[in-house]
Specification:
By secondary structure, the protein is α/β, with parallel strands linked by helices. The protein has helices at residues 2-13, 38-47, 70-83, 103-123, 140-154, 160-163, 183-192, 205-211, 218-231, 266-274, 294-304, and strands spanning 27-31, 52-55, 88-91, 127-130, 166-170, 199-204, 237-242, 244-245, 256-257, 282-285. It has eleven helices and ten strands. It binds zinc ion (2 copies). The site of one zinc ion (ZN) has 4 residues, from loops.
Amino acid sequence: MPRSLAREQDILRRRPPKRPPRLTSRRIGIHTSSAGGVPNAAERAYRLGCNTFQIFSSSPRQWAPYALGELQCAEMNRLRAHYNLKPLVIHTNYLVNLASSNELFLEKSMAAFRGEVERALSLGAEYLVLHPGSFRGADREQGLLRTSAAIAASTQGLDLENAGLTILIENTAGAEFSLGGSFEQVAEVIDRLRGIVPTAACIDTCHTHVCGYDIVSEDGLYRTLTQLDETIGLNNVKVVHCNDAKAARGSKLDRHQHIGTGMIGQEPFRILLNDLRLAHAAFIAETPIDSPGDDRRNVDALKKLVQ
Ligand SMILES: [Zn+2]
Ligand SMILES: [Zn+2]
């Protein structure tokens, strides 16, 4: 993506803000590019007015991890402390499928996932977001079992608990064979890992909507929040991916849109951001960058909704 890369680098070329950006009582951020080295993402996030952010620690659609030496980890720590950027959320590479029924692919995924956890530990990240995977070739229940077992096996010997790292299972758009469309499926993986690996949830608004939950009408949103509380538990929702949706409710089409301009609209984000039961969560946009400045506009759109 050379065009978006050039734009990202522009943010760093601009002079840093004279006054610190206005912050809110909520943790609000955006998925941020690691171009030029992972620590650059922290500087970008700060300049975009974030107090939390999400990154990849490997290229999202290739197996190769990003270079991550001790110096880079130390620099990331320094910038995060200096700018009060917390939590750091890392999103696992999209190729990893811990539910794969192909043994070779499962092994490759487990090795890659272990690398993700090791890098998250080196970077001192609080959360590592994982899509629960695809159960193609098996049934859903076997898929959920396989994912849970693979998370446990690939983190063996790593002390996530002491390091303060939690794996977050993300709900998905629920298309075809993908696991995690319903809150129940996400809850099942978390339940299976209780006492084994620190595990909680990341809830994506776009995925929730296109999977069929009503989060657009006020009544529907509160009913959906009740369902979320009764399955996963709102206290276990550590990150909310704030994405508007291009596609209709129930379409299972995962196309993110700018906050307030899609099928979800602005009001549900206002309710989520101001619900005290979610005050502990980090709200992170994964919205498209169609034109320069879209990242800042989406962060601002969320910040403005906090009352
Ligand atoms: Zn997401
Ligand atoms: Zn998505």
